[in-house]
Amino acid sequence: MFGRKKDSDDIGPSKGLMKWINRFFRFILYPFIHPWAFSCLVLIIVAAVLIPWLAYKIEFTDIPQWYKNLFVQAYEATSPLKEKVVQKYNEFTNKQPVIIDDAKNKNQDDIIDYETSAPMQRPTFQSDQPEIATPDIAIQREIFQEQADEIAKEADNQPQITDQVTQPDVYFKRNDSLGLSYLDNPEKITGRFTIINANEALINSTSIFLYGVYTPSQNNKNASAYLLKTYDGKQVDCYIGAYTADKHATAICYYENKSINHDMITQGFAQNVSLY
């Protein structure tokens, strides 16, 4: 009953290479052999597909790229923690005393007996300079306040120079053949730019299409790689100027006052449909 399993048993060989091959395939086929495990596997796959589609309105073809971006963001979020751990470890190791192996072979005569030796006397120094009196703190504070008031008055008389940050001139060229519903006043949204594909991105969980440009299918791979390298994860300003028939936003997006839509055209990845 409790004897060692033989190679002739119907559940598989008990030794050698065939034993491990048998275990490998039994592990792979485990969900299909046990109905409850197969049901759990199906539920996990369905949930992994439906959650991005229902919660974030991600198209089915873009779900793998969405998970890839999610993992990249999680890795970037843990990078500061990893740097702190490495920094703390380096600080800890630098504080450890240096152990010299030759110290074990030193004579006892060279070792100072601190219990019997005379205590060390701290040397004293005398100076011929007169002692400097410490000024009264209240008087010193009044002097500093008067100096600060004078500096403030001089600053008020000087012309103020400030850096002017210009707002980009956003213009949506209407194209009725696109079937879009245009807004009278563009809606501005600001946030982290997460690339989905060559034509679509996420900003604060809002999915937008780049307005007025179209990336052909043969350029999708290179265009997506360029967007990921140049703009993914950046803080951008997007101006929504129109919506598609299924309420999908189309926008012109800017990074540091540079139009991402126009940049895709100048780089040769996209075609101008209605941008200018």
Total DSSP helices: 7
Which oligomeric state applies?
A: single chain
Separation, N- and C-terminal Cα atoms? 83 Å
Low-confidence stretches: 97-104, 158-166
CATH class of the domain at 176-272: Mainly Beta
What is the 3D form? flat
Structural class: alpha+beta
Question: What composes the largest sheet?
Answer: 5 strands, mixed, barrel
Percent helix: 25-40%
Give me the CATH fold name of the domain at 176-272.
Answer: OB fold (Dihydrolipoamide Acetyltransferase, E2P)
Please provide the ordered H/E string of secondary-structure elements: HHHHHEEEEHEEEHE
Assigned CATH architecture of the domain at 176-272: Beta Barrel
Strand order of the largest sheet: 1-2-3-6-5
Strand content: 15-25%
DSSP E strands, number: 8
- Overall pLDDT: 75
Rg over C-alpha atoms, rounded to the nearest angstrom: 36 Å
Compile the SSE list and pairings:
Layout: H1 16-28, H2 30-33, H3 35-56, H4 63-94, H5 137-157, E1 181-195, E2 200-203, E3 206-210, E4 213-214, H6 220-230, E5 235-243, E6 249-255, E7 258-259, H7 260-266, E8 271-272
Parallel strand pairs: 3-6
Antiparallel strand pairs: 1-2, 1-5, 2-3, 4-8, 5-6, 6-7
Structural write-up:
With 276 residues, the protein is of the alpha+beta class. The chain is 40% helix and 17% strand. It has helices spanning 16-28, 30-33, 35-56, 63-94, 137-157, 220-230, 260-266; strands spanning 181-195, 200-203, 206-210, 213-214, 235-243, 249-255, 258-259, 271-272. The strands form 2 sheets. The protein has a 5-stranded mixed beta barrel. A hairpin with a 5-residue loop joins strand 5 (235-243) and strand 6. It is flat. The protein starts with 15 loop residues before the first helix and ends with a strand.
